[in-house]
Every structure is written in structure tokens, then in C-alpha cells.
Design brief:
globular; Rossmann fold; single chain; seven-stranded mixed beta sheet; binds S-adenosylmethionine; 329 residues; 2 domains; alpha/beta; 43% helix
């Protein structure tokens, strides 16, 4: 597979969007009078082209989110899939998925025959992992990036047990009331309207079904999220957990010298300039500024800027949280 390219046309389009709130990591403007269809469409087009580019070139293993580390959860996973980290991964991204599923008040054995949807399923590795952990469930992923969905289907799809579809979180391509559980892993920060997303989740969930969501929150995004949560009358919010310590523990291990991430990146072939830019961009994309592990030299800041990740300097993530909701009507 080709090297990971830190810059591309999609990234430039994202940086050109008119309002700062339309940019990646600051999206989520709610459904109020400030919602602008045209700006939202531009933001989504830019976001899908960025993830198309990443999906076409990503070669650093199954890590598309910041991950989570919790020794008890790790033990629980290893009881189900022994040595799961020997399958070419550091395991942190999978643990974040496992945490997200385990917050739903169902036992793993109860998933047999249940329908699970992941909104924002990316390259599909996380949902594939959950389908191995919770066997017998029917798992569907949906993502706005066509290339990510093609890659996920090519690698992982298994008939009705596991499939991936192109679609928008704000207009889900599924019938009403068909899913028992919806999960959302580090994706909601990109949606121009959280209100539209919550409405769509409530529509596709069965009554009594659950939404389990994890994401990184800037101050702006946390305010938007808190304001939008009560606006969707069909969802009752059951839990709000600050999981910053467990996520930070994973990020720090990834940023440490000799980590799986650093070793994988070192094996990539690229020019010295791309290596510098790519390293700082990659570290920012995987949470280093959140844990204080990002370099603050002018070169590092410039690298984040040209990688489209200057936002991590301008609007830092304050907290990493989990939310659980159920469909009530
Ligand atoms: C940081 S990645 C996380 C992917 C995956 N959940 C994981 O943890 O590996 C965010 C994903 O959300 C998807 N996404 C962004 N906006 C979306 C939207 N409006 N509808 C569906 N997917 C979207 C992106 O294409 C990308 O695949």
C-alpha cells in the first residue's frame, strides 16, 4: 500500500471552509437558525474527501481513533479472543470499541440475533472486531467516505453478519425501528448538525434500543452537544462518563518511543520532509496535543498546519467522553 500522505486536496478544501465551526473537529452546530444547508453540504463534501484520501493510503494498522486502555477490559477481551493483539495491532482502538459496546446494558451473549449499527465506521476494523467479540449479531456500518466503505467491504464483509454502506449520519439509509444498538466512535465531531444525527438515530432504533457514543470534545463542541441533547425528545440520556484518563493512557503509550505506532510509521518509505510533517500530523490526529505529548516547536506547529490539524493548537480538546441514550418513543 502507498505511504500515508499528510496533505491532499480534501484537507485544503476543509481549511478553506468559510466559518471555523464548519471545519473538522469543530463541527456540530445543532439544528437552530444558524444551520446552513449549503455550508453543511460543503463541510460534508470536504470531510468525505479527507477520509477518502486517508482510506486510500492508510497503512499503519487498525488505528483510526485515539484508543483506550483499561487493564480489566483488556482481560475481558483476552478471555473472548486470546492474544488478540498479535493480529497486527496495538489493541487500543479495539479496546475503545469494546468499551463503547460494553456500556450498553446487554451481556455479550445477548447480542446473538441483535442488529447493531455503527455510524461513522471508517475502514471497518472496529466493527469487524466487535463482530468477532459478539458473535451471532448482525452488524452494519455506515460512513460518508465511499473509499473507506469500499475498503471495509473488501476486507471484512461477511454477508448479513457484517456489511458496510455509504451514507450520511444526518440522513441514514435504513428503515425505521430496525436496530437494537447504535454505536458511534469518534465521528460525531464531524457532523454539521448533531440534532439531525440524534433524530436519525432515534428513528432507526427500535423502541428501548440504545445509542452508545464516544468522542473527543473541544469546549465549543461540548457546549453544542449539551445544548442539543435535550432537543431530541425521542432519546433519553442515561449516562455521561468522562473517560479522559483511560483514553489518555492509550494515547501516551502510542506516543512513547518504540511504540507500535512509532515502529509502523518508521517503516513507511517517504522523503525526509514528508516524514517530519507526517509524524507531527499523525501524532496530532491521534491525540498527542490532548495528553501534552505534542511538540510545540515552530516546525511541529507548521507541520500540523500543513497537515490540516492546526485546529488542535487553536481549539484544544478538553475532555474525552462517553454518552449512553435510549429511544423512549
Ligand atoms: C476518526 S474516523 C473514526 C472511524 C471509526 N469509527 C474508528 O474509530 O476507527 C471518523 C469517521 O467518521 C466518518 N464521518 C464523518 N462525517 C460523517 C457523516 N456525516 N456521516 C457518516 N460518517 C461520517 C468519517 O468518514 C470517518 O470515517
Amino acid at each position: 500500500m502507498a505511504e500515508t500522505k499528510p496533505t491532499a486536496k480534501g484537507m485544503q478544501n476543509l481549511n478553506r471552509l468559510s466559518k471555523p465551526t464548519d471545519r473538522l473537529h469543530l463541527a456540530g452546530t445543532g439544528t437552530g437558525p444558524d444551520y446552513d444547508d449549503q455550508e453543511a453540504a460543503k463541510a460534508k463534501a470536504a470531510i468525505s474527501s479527507v477520509y477518502d484520501m486517508i482510506a486510500a493510503t492508510w497503512s499503519l494498522g487498525d488505528l483510526w481513533n485515539w484508543g483506550l486502555y483499561d487493564p480489566k477490559l483488556l482481560q475481558e477481551v483476552e478471555e473472548i479472543i486470546p492474544d488478540f493483539t498479535s493480529f497486527g495491532t496495538d489493541g487500543f482502538s479495539e479496546l475503545l470499541y469494546f468499551y463503547t459496546l460494553r456500556q450498553v446494558p446487554l451481556d455479550i451473549a445477548d447480542y446473538r440475533g441483535k442488529r447493531v449499527l455503527e455510524v461513522g465506521s471508517g475502514i471497518g476494523a472496529g466493527l469487524n472486531f466487535l463482530s468477532r467479540v459478539a458473535g451471532g449479531a448482525e452488524m452494519s456500518g455506515v460512513d460518508i467516505s465511499k473509499t473507506a466503505v469500499e475498503r471495509a467491504n473488501a476486507r471484512y464483509s461477511r454477508g448479513e453478519a457484517l456489511s458496510y454502506t455509504v451514507g450520511d449520519a444526518e440522513s441514514l439509509p435504513f428503515d425505521d425501528g430496525v436496530f437494537d444498538v447504535v454505536i458511534n466512535v469518534e465521528s460525531s465531531h464531524s457532523y454539521p448538525s448533531l440534532g439531525n444525527f440524534f433524530g436519525e438515530v432515534a428513528r432507526v432504533l427500535k423502541p428501548g434500543g440504545y445509542l452508545s457514543l464516544v468522542d473527543a470534545f473541544t469546549e465549543h463542541r461540548a457546549n453544542t452537544f449539551n445544548k442539543t441533547m435535550p432537543e431530541c425528545a425521542r432519546l433519553e440520556w442515561l449516562a455521561d462518563n468522562d473517560i479522559s484518563p483511560q483514553v489518555s493512557a492509550a494515547v501516551r503509550q502510542r506516543m512513547a518511543p518504540g511504540s507500535y505506532l512509532r515502529q509502523s510509521f518508521a517503516k513507511q518509505r517517504m522523503s525526509p520532509l514528508k516524514r517530519v510533517v507526517g509524524k507531527h500530523g499523525l501524532m496530532a490526529a491521534l491525540g498527542a496535543p490532548f495528553t501534552g505529548d505534542a511538540s510545540m516547536t515552530p516546525l511541529a506547529k507548521w507541520s500540523r498546519k500543513v497537515s490540516g490539524l492546526a485546529i488542535s493548537d487553536k481549539a484544544p480538546v478538553r475532555t474525552y467522553r462517553h454518552y449512553l441514550a435510549t429511544r423512549v418513543s
